[in-house]
Design a protein that fits this description.
The chain has 393 residues and is α+β, with helices and mostly antiparallel strands. It folds into two domains: 189 residues, no CATH class; 173 residues, no CATH class. Helix content is 54%, strand content 16%. It has twelve helices and twelve strands. The strands form two sheets. Strands 1, 3, 4, 5, 6, 7, 8, 9, 11 and 12 form a ten-stranded mixed beta sheet that branches. The protein has a two-stranded antiparallel ribbon with strand order 2-10. Strand 3 and strand 4 form a beta hairpin. It is elongated, with a radius of gyration of 31 Å.
Length: 393
């Protein structure tokens, strides 16, 4: 404890220099923490999105698969539609366990809000084994199943006859309310497929088909069979796992670039710590000579200055992680405007394992950065050091 106190008191003889040095370490550690947290959060969020959707393959009209996946997951108006007759070709494809037809439409209201409607049939329930809802599923015309957020925001309850927002004067009777899923389903209103097609004036048409496979390991063969069926040329077959892997590879490419930036930041921080401690050694040459004259060994001097570098890096790491925690919300908002596909779940959140890893990185930086100044201090000849008035020997 004596050496720790000595190192701490020596460290703060020049508080401005120490603060700037620690801030450099903090910036590098904050960048490293945000990068690792984003990598873990994005992978987890993609997995959650696939699980929530419940499908392995998305059948959509011709167009961009990224846009189609985003529309299917988060809800909006579709620019193109599929013929409902294509559903029979999809269901007849070997390896398809469930094919759930969906008609999705959105109605915009005042203040920029919009309501997303999904027309579905009972096959849709096979894709949502985690759903829990009070009441029943819409099976007859006029019945409506609403998400938890819709029910809370509008004050709807089971049995009520309500006007359908944006589709007035159309009305529906609430037959069920889904328990909170913490996903997009909380904001959707579910109708029978026929009602949705009628209300949005697209009879005998679908926006997409959600397909669950009997054996997900046979993804390639089933996708090829779907593309080769009679309607294959009029549909875009999107294997969701492959799509999300492609998205992840795009994000990984950016992650490697940002990782190199973070590495350069860490190296610059290490250089700054080493330079700061070398200056401290030059300023305290006479003090080192007195300590050697009083019986301190070379190892004692080495340990003193090495501990100072460790303490600088630990303080910097602490400041960096606090800073990262403060900016995570703003950084996530910025990332959502830049990524090609953004899951609904959190992309950045505090994780103690990542914080521990960043602290270990800071200690490693301190260990490496402290070797040269500590060695320089330990190898000063005691007699020459005692004669010195400070400054470089």
């Amino acid at each position: 404890m004596t050496w720790l106190r000595l190192a701490w008191s020596g460290l703060w003889r020049r508080p401005l220099r120490t603060g700037v040095t620690a801030a450099g370490v903090g910036l590098a550690v904050a960048a490293c923490f945000c990068l690792l947290a984003f990598q873990a959060g994005y992978r987890r969020s993609l997995a959650i999105e696939i699980e929530r959707l419940g499908a392995h393959v998305l059948v959509v009209p011709k167009g961009c698969p990224y846009d189609a996946a985003s529309l299917a997951l988060h809800g909006a108006n579709w620019p193109c539609h599929l013929k409902a007759a294509y559903l029979n070709d999809v269901r007849a494809t070997p390896g398809v366990a469930t094919a759930a037809p969906v008609f999705m439409g959105a109605q915009y209201e005042q203040a920029g809000r919009y309501t997303v409607y999904l027309g579905v049939d009972t096959n849709f329930l096979q894709l949502k084994p985690g759903w829990r809802f009070a009441g029943g599923f819409p099976q007859t015309s006029g019945e409506v199943l609403v998400g938890a957020e819709v029910a809370r925001r509008r004050g709807w309850d089971i049995g009520q006859q309500v006007a359908l927002p944006g589709l007035e004067p159309a009305q529906g009777q609430i037959c069920g309310v889904i328990e909170a899923t913490q996903g997009p389903d909380d904001r959707f209103i579910f109708l029978t497929l026929a009602d949705a097609q009628t209300l949005f004036r697209h009879p005998e048409e679908l926006t997409h088909i959600l397909v669950r496979l009997a054996d997900p390991t046979r993804m390639e063969s089933v996708v090829e069979a779907l593309r080769g069926c009679d309607a294959g040329m009029q549909m875009n077959i999107v294997p969701l796992a492959h799509l999300f892997r492609t998205i992840q590879s795009l994000v990984d490419a950016t992650r490697w670039f940002l990782g190199c930036v973070a590495l350069v930041g860490l190296l610059a921080a290490a250089a700054g710590v080493s330079a700061s401690l070398l200056i401290a050694v030059a300023e305290r040459i006479r003090e080192i000579g007195v300590m050697r004259g009083l019986g301190a060994s070379r190892w004692d001097i080495f340990r003193l200055f090495w501990l100072e570098t460790q303490q600088t890096c630990v303080v910097g790491a602490g400041l960096g992680m606090v800073g990262a925690w403060l900016v995570m919300g703003a950084l996530e908002s910025w990332l959502r405007t830049r990524l090609p596909f953004v899951p609904d779940a959190r992309l950045l959140e505090w994780q103690w394992s990542i914080a521990g890893g960043c602290l270990a990185i800071a200690l490693a930086v301190g260990t490496a950065a402290g070797l040269l100044p500590a060695w320089r201090a330990a190898t000063l000849p005691p007699v020459n050091a005692m004669r010195s008035r400070g400054g470089c020997a």
